[in-house]
Design a protein that fits this description.
Blueprint lengths: L1 H26 L10 E10 L3 H4 L1 E3 L5 E3 L24 E3 L10 E4 L3 E7 L8 E5 L3 H7 L2 E8 L4
Parallel strand pairs: 1-7, 4-6
Antiparallel strand pairs: 1-8, 2-3, 4-7, 5-6, 5-8
The chain binds zinc ion (ZN).
């Protein structure tokens, strides 16, 4: 009976590793292996999911609604980005005319980021970087740095 029990343990470990791999693909930004397509000096600001950063408010029913933009007054899921994915560190808001969704960035001092959001104030060479906490976004302030850019090819 002993060897069979050992086999079960191996299956469990295998399933665990597989699960972690799937999780990693869904949740981590895989750094591109090729050289960056461009290195651009950009204005970098920080934001979080709060009412102030993402311009939403509670309506008279206590439901969160957009406070500005084309979806003004419509129901808003707090933390959801323009690409309908939930924001997490690594989520970057861009001007979609310049950087299509899925464009990857390497931002010194922040790490890898991926274009998954847009914003009314984000125009041109400006990236808005997501932080969990409002204070972290404020601490980041406004910085100008050279950012490596990988345009999405899929
Ligand atoms: Zn905020």
């Amino acid at each position: 009976m002993k060897p069979r029990r050992k086999q079960w343990k191996l299956y469990l470990i295998g399933a665990g590793v597989l699960y972690l791999l799937v999780l990693a693909r869904c949740h981590l930004i895989v750094p591109p292996l090729r050289k960056p397509d461009a290195v651009i000096e950009m204005k970098l600001t920080g934001y979080c999911a709060c009412a102030k950063c993402c311009s939403w408010k509670f309506n008279w029913l206590g439901m969160p609604v957009s406070a500005s933009g084309p979806r003004k007054g419509k129901f808003k899921i707090i933390g959801q980005t323009a690409s309908s994915r939930m924001a997490r560190p690594g989520t970057v808001a861009v001007d979609p005319k310049l950087f299509p969704m899925g464009t990857k960035f390497y931002i010194p001092g922040y790490g890898f980021g991926i274009a998954r959001d847009t914003g009314g104030d984000i125009k041109g060479r400006h990236l808005d970087l997501f932080f969990w906490q409002h204070r972290s976004g404020e601490n980041w302030g406004v910085q100008h740095r050279e950012v490596k850019v990988w345009y999405s090819r899929d």
